[in-house]
Amino acid sequence: METKTMVLAGVGGQGIMLASRIFAEALFRMGYDVKQAEVHGLSQRGGSVMTYVRWGDKVWSPITGDYEAHYLVALEELEALRYLHLVRPDGTVLINTYRFVPMSVSSGLKGPDGKPYTYPEDVPEIVRRNIPNVRTIDALKLATEVGNARVMNVVVVGAASRLLGLDREVVRSTVADKVPRKYVDVNLRAFNRGWESVEV
């Protein structure tokens, strides 16, 4: 099969690396050759974090160039714009409608033009001007409904897994193996809620 590429993006503290490890392990269990790489990332809360997950019969490199990723999964709206250049025109973008306002905006810093930095309005619509296939999810709302806002990342894993056509039980069992034992139940509820929130 053709090697597929997924980019996961978000901000520090959202659990991007856990989500990336879940996808990589689940795809390996499904029989694919898998490569994973953290290309950019600051571990502190609020810093931009991005990873690649690539899978296929044989994957030679963990990263690709611009306009080559089949999927972009963004856990924060602004990060969808930051990494949009990596996605193929016929790719798929999943955006979690969550906003983490950068310090440059919240502190009122001004740009070179003298105007204050602002957070873009209607990010999904901006993305659609470049990539028509855009899906959105309110993962924070769904995570809160299952009992813990911190499992927002696993809600997104559930939704993305369905969009990618992955084996539900394989990913679900991988989630159970990758999260701390005392949080398995709430994470499985989060995964199920995410899976059920999208239509394919």
Description:
The protein has a six-stranded mixed beta sheet. The protein starts with a strand and ends with a helix. 38% of the residues lie in helices and 23% in strands. Helix 5 packs across helix 6 and helix 5 crosses helix 8. It has a single domain (4-103, 120-196), classed as Pyruvate-ferredoxin Oxidoreductase, domain 3 (3-Layer(aba) Sandwich). The chain is globular and about 55 Å long. It has 200 residues and is an alpha/beta fold.
Write the CATH fold name.
Pyruvate-ferredoxin Oxidoreductase, domain 3
Number of helical elements: 8
Order of helices and strands: EHEEEHEHHEHHHH
How many structural domains can be distinguished in the coordinates?
Answer: 1
